[in-house]
Write a structure and sequence with these properties.
Length: 675
């Protein structure tokens, strides 16, 4: 269902949002006027304003200087540029931390974060929350009905974790709401182990560094509490903004799979899901991992258009090696976001800073000014985005494949420790499952354990070590009613309290996979073993094995050597009217891809663009009348000819296309067709 606030927002902009973070407080007034002129030249229609401007608005406690912000808002409105106005609460001013040092977050090692960066606030501090509410109220009073205002931007890249006394107080209250009484908590945390039983709520501290191993359930709950506490800060500011005006969309910009916030809980509280994304030009596969992040953010709001709020015009400054985006790469990456459901192309930042920590971070207007390759590409892209304005508000074609991503499961696997091996990387595992689907042009939705799965034919479950009863029931019912489940090893092991499920591994999914696992066998460093498939093919596996004993399942592949020779390495099982494929080891890429894609094909899901090379990204966005086929050639040195099953018109060139179309290296086409 279309959000009316976002519908009004798109109507106001007349299409896709284009622009970036604007920090006029760093520049003089003459530069402001030059900025607005260049924004018009580049086709910018939206800027994010005031993100780090708290001290510029409130230089002393209770003293406000709005004149400069009034002038900038007016200039932008006169220039036809709308404003995504930020609450500046990500950067508390020095006077606040001087007056109230307890506003600083306490790090896991017990030391305060200190001043000199950003996000230097304790999310549990009542003092911080009070001052934040005050500055937000002042902004809302003054600008809620300013004609430039198009959207509210709360804070920036939420994420600090604090281990302070205030956090401990908040954690205890959170635990009381979750468990109700200490007996229930002690049972959930298995505190009889090592005699950790709590008899008073005040005995519970935050899960910072200890001299002995940490209780895993306690650490897991602290992760959940931190995400919820940060969300409370966001909701408090949103409540203030909406109390003044309720028809303006409200959002906060999130980062790719950031570990401190459960985005499944955050997304319903935003009018639009928004992402900051910085693919590495030095990584030849960065566009594939970016595609997963785009699929995630599209899925957070059930397929509704989302927004890119930050990307780099060229190089960033925070990697060990900061490569520029070669000509055409920025354009292609921007079109990729649109191809996967974004309604915006936004950058950090508009004008490159002369000093500070990000002085060598690229910008739409670089240090070399508008007479530069970067600005020319920015302006060219702005002209193309105007041509693509009909795409705004359209949605991607329905997916048949879903992939489970669960923050609880990630925290359990990566953060609680003391597992058979402790170098799991949940996100890398998820991306490994996503890559072959991307290469075969499948649209993939990302789902949570609470998502509606009835619309899908295939469900991918990567390393679901920790999964609650609700998630177990959903996966099991999906298979029972005809779905195909592809599950990787070390899944279904513990419940939501990180307690090993009874009746043998994998406790949650033993009947689903039709096999019992006697032991988990992590591989020794450098150890390899051979896996043989039923059709005679062999493959190499490594890193992990499981001692599987088949019950109702059958082996698709077995170990051909070692102590587990003859035992199943890949299992298939019929469950209800559906099918499950379980991978009990880490197969080499080619064999892994073959197993996953065979399961997808067997479920009746076909590559929608057969014969198109893997490096050509193909997606469709559509509305009731039109479909827009995006074709993106990610090869930097190879042109490619793509066959077309239906003719269309390339929106970017207005040229008709039928039979086939040729894409130059890093080239793109967007074909409009009538549905």
């Amino acid at each position: 269902m279309t959000n009316p606030r976002m519908h009004a927002f798109r109507s106001r902009l007349g299409g896709l949002a284009y622009g970036g973070d604007y920090n006029p407080e760093q520049w003089d007034r003459a530069t402001w006027r030059e900025d607005v002129r260049l924004m018009r030249e580049a086709g910018v229609n939206l800027v994010s304003l005031g993100i780090f401007a708290w001290v510029s608005i409130e230089p002393e406690p209770g003293k406000y200087e709005f004149d400069w912000l009034d002038e900038v808002m007016d200039l932008l409105h006169e220039g036809g540029v709308s404003v995504n106005l930020a609450t500046p609460t990500a950067a508390p001013p020095a006077w606040l931390t001087q007056l109230h040092p307890d506003v600083f977050p306490i790090m896991e090692d017990g030391r305060p974060l200190g001043l000199g960066s950003r996000q230097h606030f304790d999310h549990s501090s009542p003092v911080y929350r009070e001052y934040a509410a005050n500055i937000v109220t002042r902004l809302a009073e003054r600008y809620s009905f300013h004609p430039a205002l198009a959207m509210w931007h709360i804070n920036n890249e939420y994420g600090p974790t604090s281990y302070s006394d205030a956090a401990a107080d908040g954690f205890r209250r959170w635990l009381q709401r979750r468990y109700g009484d200490l007996d229930t908590l002690n049972d959930a945390w298995t505190t009889r182990f090592w005699g950790q039983v709590y008899t008073d709520w005040e005995q519970i501290e935050v899960s910072n560094v200890m001299g002995v191993w940490m209780n895993p359930a306690r650490r897991l709950d602290f992760r959940r509490f931190t995400s919820d506490s940060l969300l409370e800060c966001y909701l408090a500011e949103r409540h203030i903004l909406r109390s003044f005006r309720d028809d303006i969309p409200v959002m906060t910009n999130l980062m790719p799979l950031y570990p401190h916030a459960d985005y499944w809980k955050w997304a319903p509280e935003q009018d639009v899901a928004t992402l900051d994304i910085y693919p590495d030009p030095g990584d030849p596969g960065s566009h594939i991992s970016a595609a997963f992040h785009y699929d995630m953010f599209r899925s957070l709001k059930d397929g509704q258009p989302w927004m890119v709020m930050e990307q780099a015009a060229s190089a960033v400054n925070w990697r060990d090696l900061n490569l520029v985006k070669e000509p055409g790469r920025m354009r292609l990456g921007s079109l990729q976001a649109l191809a996967r459901g974004s309604d915006s192309v936004m950058f950090f930042q508009w004008r490159a800073a002369r000093g500070g920590q990000e002085r060598f971070h690229s910008a739409m207007v670089p240090h070399s000014g508008p007479d530069s390759r970067t600005f020319r590409e920015v302006a060219d892209l702005g002209r193309e985005l105007k041509l693509l304005s009909p795409v705004a508000g359209t949605t991607m074609r329905r997916a048949d494949v879903a992939m489970l991503f669960d923050w609880d499961g990630r925290w359990g696997l990566e953060d609680t420790g003391r597992l058979p091996r402790n170098d799991f990387d949940y996100c890398d595992t998820v991306l490994r499952h996503h890559r072959p689907l991307w290469e075969h042009h499948h649209t993939v939705d990302v789902v949570s354990p609470k998502s509606d799965l009835t619309r899908y034919k295939v469900l991918i479950v990567p390393n679901a070590y920790l999964i609650g009863d609700e998630g177990v029931a959903a996966v099991t019912e999906f298979a029972r009613t005809g779905g195909t489940v592809v599950m990787s090893f070390f899944s279904g092991v513990v419940d939501e309290c990180d307690r090993v499920r009874p009746n043998g591994y994998p406790g949650a999914f033993r009947h689903l996979i039709g096999a019992k696992i006697d032991e988990y066998w992590p591989a020794r460093p450098g150890e390899r073993f051979t896996v043989q498939f039923a059709d005679g093919r062999t493959a190499t596996a490594s890193w992990w094995r499981e001692d599987i004993h088949l019950e109702t399942g059958t082996a698709l592949a077995t170990y051909a050597d070692g102590l587990l020779a003859g035992h199943a390495a890949v299992v298939t099982n019929a469950h209800g009217s559906g099918r499950v494929v379980y991978l009990a080891t880490l197969l080499e890429d080619a064999a892994f891809d073959a197993v996953l894609l065979d399961a997808v094909r067997s479920a009746g899901v076909r590559d929608p663009f057969p014969g198109v090379p893997a490096h050509v990204e193909c997606t469709v966005r559509e509305d009731e009348r039109n479909a827009y086929l995006f074709l993106l050639n990610h090869s930097p040195d190879m042109a490619v000819t793509v066959p077309l099953n239906r003719p269309g018109t390339d929106v970017l060139t207005a040229a008709p296309a039928a039979g086939e179309i040729t894409l130059v290296p890093l080239g793109a086409a967007v074909l409009q067709r009538t549905r």
